[in-house]
Amino acid sequence: MDKELIQQIRDKARNLLKEGTVEGVIGYERASDDLTSRPLFAYSPSDTERLIFDETCAHNLVKYLLDKKGKKIAVVVKPCDSRAINLLLNEGQIERDNVFIIGVGCPGMVETNWNHKSETLQAKCRTCQLFKPVVYDFLAGGEIERQAEEETYSDITEEEAKSVATRREFWLEQFGRCIRCYACRQVCPGCYCPVCFAERLDPLWVGIRIAPEENDMWQTIRSFHLAGRCIGCNECERVCPVDIPLSLLNRKLEKDVKELFAFQAGLDPEEPPPFATFKKEEVMEFEK
Amino acid sequence: MNLFASKDDLIRWLGSLLKEHIVIAPVRVQEQTTFQPISRVEEVVFDFNNTALSPKGWFLPPTETLFSVQRDDGKVELVPTKVERDAVIFGLHPCDARGIALMDSPFLQEPSDALYRERRSRTALIGLACRQAQPECFCTSMGSAPDDPSNVDILLTEVEDDYIVQAVTEKGKALLPKGLAEYKGKVPAPPKLETVPTKEVISAMRELFNDPYWEQLADRCLHCNICAYVCPTCYCFDMRDYADKGKVERVRSWESCQSPGFSLTAGGYDPRTTKGERLRQRFYHKLFYFPEQFQDVACVGCGRCVRDCPVNIDIREVISNLKQVMEAKSGS
Amino acid sequence: MKSAYEPKVIGFLCNWCSYAGADMAGTSRMRYPQNIRIIRVPCSGRVDPLFVVKCFQRGADGVLVSGCHPGDCHYTEGNYYTRRRFALLREFLDYLGIAKERLRVEWVSASEGQKFAELLSDFTAELAGLGPRSKI
Q1: Mean pLDDT of C24-49
Q2: Residue span of the structural domain in which A118 resides
Q3: Which residues contact B283 (CB under 8 A, 6 or more apart)?
Q4: Whole-structure pTM value
Q5: Closest residue in chain A to residue B310, using alpha carbons only
Q6: What is the domain partition of chain B in residue ranges?
Q7: Position B231 confidence tier, pLDDT thresholds 50, 70, 90
Q8: Same domain for A124 and A184?
């Protein structure tokens, strides 16, 4: 644990609350296992003593800004999480003036479960090219220097090389395990529809059966709704209680959006997302 | 009287049970252990911590058709789903067995749930005492124990690589193979567990309903359904009729009070709209409404919600916090 | 020649061009396979990927999304969005195991009755060749 970094976060958070710049600070505190971490909502200067930051702080706290609309809130963001801020700004969900961003340079997060902390970096961190947040008001701990592997999408191309029938079988097996707890949706900063298509009764897009054909519908549309919007925090995969490899869906879309539309979500709060714009002269594969 | 079975005896016995029964046992699926009907004894995992999902799914499946409607010659007939075969659940820990016993209260109270009742009466439970406790375990604070035989038909306790066999009910006795020797040795002591002040808090729950604690706690809650779906005692469901190409089915699926829209009524009114109200419902159902109605706390201390909550809402911590809130109130 | 398998096709046709094109094929008495069920939409841009996925879930063998040629949209630019959206969806469905040949996106104008008839014959034959989708 980087004590100096934590002290900077605490000092900043305490001052923001003392001065009344914000109503609350969303950060991380130690979890009940005394090993990993969990989100902390600090409303008083004394709460800020509980703030921490280390390699277990995987949660993307930007999601919570959607619950606190209209309030002035400070939030601790890692580089990957910061892209979610740009996403929400781009889509008009939050106001920049209402958010104070305490950025942190990120050494990469390790795989954790309650009471378990591994030495292994999360897959998304191994290829992360962001060493500091893309947007912040205060950068705690300064920039971090580290090595990152190149994102080659090798697991995706491996899937793509298989036959359509093999892929169908694979995904039905994966979706067959889904218990439709909707944790993937609930944790996602890009999922904020007032009424999710999965909860609409008329027309009934997804039935209540927790069965492969309905789960397939759910997961296909959920991930496609995030096409060009997923910022790659991979929280959905992390929280999935039945270990469905959701990153294989999100990163496939990320890869194709990059190739087809040269776009990556959350890097720029102004650039229009790929489905809200077009180029008259572009030619798609099916037109050739 | 305790009996003795070697591991080989046990495997042979399970094999013979498979001939007449559906056997549901812990198996490995990817990296997880979970209860599933098995086709071969080799699939069974004997050494496991609490499974990913509890065995409640056998009695209340994630999805099931309650009945279908068939139309024939102008006649309309309701065809209920039938339970085809007797079943055995092998290897449930005492906490999971207590979970099933607790579900009996709402489901078997008259008018009872026909499918649940049928499955329950045709299923035998073979329990496996816990020789080790996990850090998330707290069954002794919730009316059970790692070696609690009270909710199973047969309880097995592992000693070295073999098993002490305790036939708890007549149903259990009838299932046992003939010729097991008596076990005269000592039964190993169960592991010790951390305790939670459940009793004190239950008695004060009525006073804590409007406490700001719930909104604070709910700040970090994501309102996914993980806690409810991994819980051995959460039994809420949703039902809908499916009509497709002339066939009509009534389907029941798991639902949870954490879902947005769970308590939405026709006409658009929702009595639980805030995050705090929804999260409070979970703990009130477990620690107040259920005990009021059926005496017992609707938690068995298996620790699955503690283990799986993505934001670490730890029911033991909630209970301890409530105790502090309660003491602060009575102190002031 | 009648193929061994008769695929089910759902077609989303825009009101201004493709639906009129299909109408043209009909009124000109052109022959085309009867495997298609047509759903008229105001613009191909109205077609939510959800509609297409739902068709496949409910057992369609193929889906056709058809609108005005780029530049000719009645609403000026609706079909440009359609083009992007379905270019990606085709790749994604293919990845999930629904061959991209099963989702066709075609530009058919009101005067292209012949094109519509030919395209349907071609699509139906291709789907028949692929055979029924594996049931879930």
Answers
A1: 96
A2: 3-140
A3: B315, B318
A4: 0.94
A5: A239
A6: 2-54+83-182, 198-234+256-331
A7: very high
A8: no
ipTM, two decimals, is 0.95
- Both tokens of residue B95? 């906490």
Tokens 């449930």 sit at which residue? B92
Say whether residue B210 is in contact with chain A using an 8 A CB cutoff: no
Examine the domain organization and report whether A13 and A119 are in the same domain. Answer: yes
Same domain, A162 and A279: yes
| Nearest-Cα residue of chain B relative to residue A43 | B216
Work out the average pLDDT over A157-181. 96
Does A149 map to a domain? no
- To the nearest whole Å, the CA of C76 is away from the closest chain A CA by 11
What SS3 state is found at A20? Answer: coil
Whether A108 and A126 have beta carbons less than 8 Å apart is answered as yes
Which pLDDT tens digit goes with each residue over C65-119?
999 999 999 999 999 999 999 999 999 999 999 999 999 999 999 999 999 999 9
Chain A CB contacts of C92 below 8 Å: 220, 223-224, 227, 252-253, 256
C-alpha distances in angstroms, A57 versus A21, A27, A115? 25, 9, 14
pLDDT tens digit string along B270-327?
A: 999 999 999 999 999 999 999 999 999 999 999 999 999 999 999 999 999 999 999 9
A41 and B219 within 8 Å at the Cβ level: the answer is yes
Contact flag A256-C85 (C-beta cutoff 8 Å): no
CATH of C9-130, one of 3.30.300, 1.20.120, 3.40.50, 1.10.3470: 3.40.50
In a domain, A145, yes or no: no
For residue C136, list chain A residues with Cβ-Cβ distance below 8 A.
Answer: 172, 212-213, 216
Same-domain status, A88 and A10? yes
Q: Where are the domains of chain C?
A: 9-130
pLDDT classification of B332: cutoffs 50, 70, 90: low
Contact residues, chain B, for A36 at CB < 8 Å: 312
- Which of A79, A109, A140 delimits the end of a domain? A140
- In 3D, which of B137, B154, B55 has the Cα closest to residue B146? B137
Q: DSSP letters along B255-306, please?
A: --TTSTTTT--TTS--S--SHHHHHHHHHHIIIIIHHHHHSS-S-----HHH
Would you say residue A275 lies in a domain?
yes
B53-72 average pLDDT score: 94
